[in-house]
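[Q] Does anyone have a clean structure-token version of this?
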Amino acid sequence: MFPSPQNGLSLIRILGGINKTLSIAREVIPIYEQAKPMVQNARKAFDLLKSINSTQKYSKQPISQDITPQNKRTMPAGNSSVNNPSFFK
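[A] Here you go.
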């Protein structure tokens, strides 16, 4: 009715196999969790490189507009902290 220890299947052997499987899983799961973001970032980086290469196919023409610098804006002389909050007095 019950298998004998000589036949191959026994409760001790089954529990030993389960123990080995769980110990391997305890080692593999943290490695997987650490490697998963690196793989996702590598995919995103590869997609970024592909998009950069696809934009280089188009010809770049220089813009022929005259660009002049704007004058710097200056604050009026006087009390400049009128509208600003004062934290230390």
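[Q] Thanks! Anything notable?
[A] Residues 7 and 50 are 60 Å apart (CA to CA).
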